[in-house]
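Data availability (excerpt). All sequences and predicted token strings are deposited with the supplementary files. A representative entry, Amino acid permease, is shown inline so that the format can be inspected without opening the archive.
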Amino acid sequence: MEQNQNELKRSLGFWSAISIVVGTIIGSGIFFKQASILDSAGSSTMAILAWIFGGIITLAAGLTIAEIGAQMPYTGGLYVYIENLYGRICGFLAGWMQIIAYGPAIIASVAGFMSIMMANLFGLGTEWRIPLALITVIAIGAMNFFENKVGAAFSVITTIAKMIPIAAIIIFGIFWGHEDALNQTVGEISRSGGGFGVAVLATLFGYDGWILIANLGGEMKNPQKLLPKAIILGISSVLLIYTLITIGIFRFLPAAEIHRLGENATSYLAVKAFGNLGGKLLSIGIIISMMGTLNGKMITFPRITYAMAKRGDLPFSKFLSYVTPKGKSPIIATLFLIILSAIMMVFFDPDKLSDLCVFTVYCFYLMAFFGIFILRKKHSTRPFSTPLYPLVPFIAIAGGIFVLISELFNDPAGVLFFIGLVIVGLPIFYAVKRMDQKRMK
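Structure token line:
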């Protein structure tokens, strides 16, 4: 009876799952990265292609993970997949990476970008950015102290709300813009660009977060069928939205203007199109978008901590695995995530965090992608089969290798620091196991 009281509730349906995927992915990247991707790609045509290539890599990754996840529909996602494929230690490191490095860093990064928008909207100074980010993360985290339906409902609301400014940019840009969306370039771009590969790498931050729905496998009503649908439809929808937004922006603004405006290009478009009120409304829409992203991550990451603590893999597992009696929410795990995210916000730059997040998680994505070949040898039947096998997994693997090499050359010091955070998990794992053995004696 006690065990049943400490279990998560299977209450998430199709629309909640889709909204969590879309809401978690669409955050700051599509709004803040347009100029930097244009600079790296060298022309508007190549920038649009970079978003498409990034989406294809992400979709290939999603299709590959969908087959794996359908065979392991449990709370924990990547942590569970890696453990079942490669053993307890590798699985622990995959979970440790997400709760110590990737999860807090991606939340701190998105909250940091969002606080810039909030400070600009209210005319506040830069000293308000960290307090605004902290207040928002605490508020969204507190909302997830309740039953998972509350957070899922917020995801549905914010996903619908964020589609309003997105639709405005797409429709107004494509139908009322007078620029040629293709083949725009300026002299400064060719001198400052980092190449098409760097542009694709930048788009992957915009697509990141798609796998987090897998962390909720233990709370879905029919995970074997629902999980693949949510991943595939969610990623495909985002790919289409991102491509159309980029075309809309290039239709309305000259490449030279986008290059000059940098991170403010999208806000400038709104002001030009709809006046000062339109600019403020778009800023509010972007803030809502990022709040939805934060909520999706705040729903999913504590479930990894919960799954690991439930197994006794973490210090203070008894507390970290606690769920509220009524709402079945992992409240202590959520508080733990809020604290780590706050530390990241104070000590790290959001832009650098965004790149290191992608690198860290792709180390384990790559291991999971190879896992599809292991499972195919073990099982002849499966709830979902990746289409165009083995081409799709090979695309996912090639994309993963590309991410790791690119970021290693781009920021070797940051890469070593985040790898260090992951490796620190090994002595903690063995210390916890020794303590468990002593208690058993």
